[in-house]
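Example 4.3 (complexes with small molecules)
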Amino acid sequence: MKVTVFGIGYVGLVQAAILAEVGHDVICVDVDADKVERLKQGQIPIFEPGLEPLVKENYAAGRLKFTTDAAEGVKHGEVQFIAVGTPPDEDGSADLKYVLAVAATIAEHMEANQIIIDKSTVPVGTADKVKAKVAEVLQSRGRPDLTYAVVSNPEFLKEGSAVADCMRPDRIVIGTSDEHAEEVMRELYSPFNRNHDKVIVMDVRSAELTKYAANCMLATKISFMNEMANLAEILGADIESVRKGIGSDQRIGYHFIYPGLGYGGSCFPKDVQALIRTAEQMKFEPKVLKAVEARNNEQKTTLFAKLNKHYGGDLKGKTFAIWGLSFKPNTDDMREAPSRVLMEALWEAGANVQAYDPEAMNEAQRIYGNRDDLTLCGTKEGALKGADALVIVTEWQMFRAPDFPLIKKCLRDPVVFDGRNMYDTARMAKRGFTYYSVGRG
Ligand SMILES: NC(=O)c1ccc[n+]([C@@H]2O[C@H](COP(=O)([O-])OP(=O)(O)OC[C@H]3O[C@@H](n4cnc5c(N)ncnc54)[C@H](O)[C@@H]3O)[C@@H](O)[C@H]2O)c1
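Answer. The structure with nicotinamide-adenine-dinucleotide bound is encoded below.
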């Protein structure tokens, strides 16, 4: 099938690459000319396991193309994906300007009947807005004869395993009440549907809400566990034992109940906020969601509070080795990352940071530029040299079994602040470290 994808970000690029991989003929359109040019030269703008070979091979095979030419893009596709960003507006609601701009672009150039697919995470009612925008532009072009369907097809990929998630999706949600659009969507996704039927068809508004409900449920699990961890710390309990104790209940399960430093990234924070705004616009008080957000914002400050307390409120001139900058492992994404809250608080207190991350160094450089109180180090060992203490912010695999004697040798004090509970507390004590972790009173 001929497919057009607007927006070459985490979602658009991965989706385009996997659709091309199974044989579809895909064109990606983006307004970022530099990104398009770099992709044509084989430079992948994001780090995502397995993505680079997929993009390169399908580009070389001619099944995956990149362009800034919207007219060419619209002309190509039998289906048009909208996979552009929906960042928070000033009041936290999802800003739909990019989505509606693409809708207008599709309407400007379409010459045949189209299926327009909302892949971006968008509030309930957006498909109606896209529909209205397309109708408005077609009317102004004098082409109200062209028909189209707007389908909601939210994306559930996880950064860090996006390719695998899209190749083997848990479910494919299709929001439409148009029979033809449903059939085309089923055909488009049939290569990913061999094992068992993963397609769940529902009305558009339910599909739009499904995406927010999923992310908000996951965010709730995280904030709930962080609340339990903070309580465990005060009560002298061990949250890791509690986690195993509750996870063994099949109704709860072991997934996604790790305590830590709060959720970050481009999705959970903005989606929780956006659903809060949607609820408030309908004069409905989203009590649980507000608590989830408040707990998360506070959780991001807990590691700094522990450091500050340990050093008696005097962090001026101290140097901290930070391991992990991305908001979670296996990605270079630092949007809303707990590392940023921590580093900015440390700098505010007059401390210096020596940071290492396996993938997010360029991103850190891009965000913070050159500053005297930040040294970006080439190795995790390099970050330790002369530092007062080690702080672990992201649970990358490579931090799980480090050379502890070396850490001790490099640091001024054998102190480790661990925001991810990477190590066993008794073993850390035996190794001679003062060890702070999360929820292990
Ligand atoms: N990142 C994730 O993990 C994830 C997961 C599921 C859903 N989502 C949702 O998918 C959507 C996209 O997220 P993302 O992380 O891929 O965003 P992103 O910021 O990485 O990429 C968006 C891309 O859209 C391009 N763009 C903007 N306006 C355009 C236009 N008019 N025409 C063509 N291209 C345009 C931008 O240049 C950019 O390359 C968001 O709604 C997000 O909430 C993201």
